[in-house]
Amino acid sequence: MERPTVRRNWILGSATGLFLVAALVVALQIIGTGNPVICPESTNPNWNPYSGTAAQATACGLTVYPLIGTTKLPDGGTRYVYQESGGNTTTENVPPKGFNALDASPSERALYGIPSEPPVTNATAYAHWLMEVGAIKHFVQPPPFLYSVPDMTNLGLQQPGS
Question: Does 29 fall in a domain?
């Protein structure tokens, strides 16, 4: 009678052992691969990278330039600094709340990327500048990263319209 008992214990023991080994293999695969980030563009061709994360943009084949810091400017504006490849940086300056581009000095306009005022003797250009610059009501908060699309010429593909 001892033989069937021993045999049954061995089968139960090996089934449990197999289950534990299988669970361990699955757990190691999950840990090893992590949570893979999937490109949302694969399910939504109109996906905007700025509505997602930098990891998602990278998964879509975009080159990501992360925001590495902000600095307050003397007039209360903010400078956003992004890390490019090769150690270079790109900056974006945002004026303080209440900034009026029409009343700003030429150097303030230059700092914030606003076109310089044309001479009043060029009535058409001056009127257009007043209309455009006067229409600025607020400035957009820069995103947590910038991105660039792959260069199609290096991939051997034709760009649209060529």
Answer: no
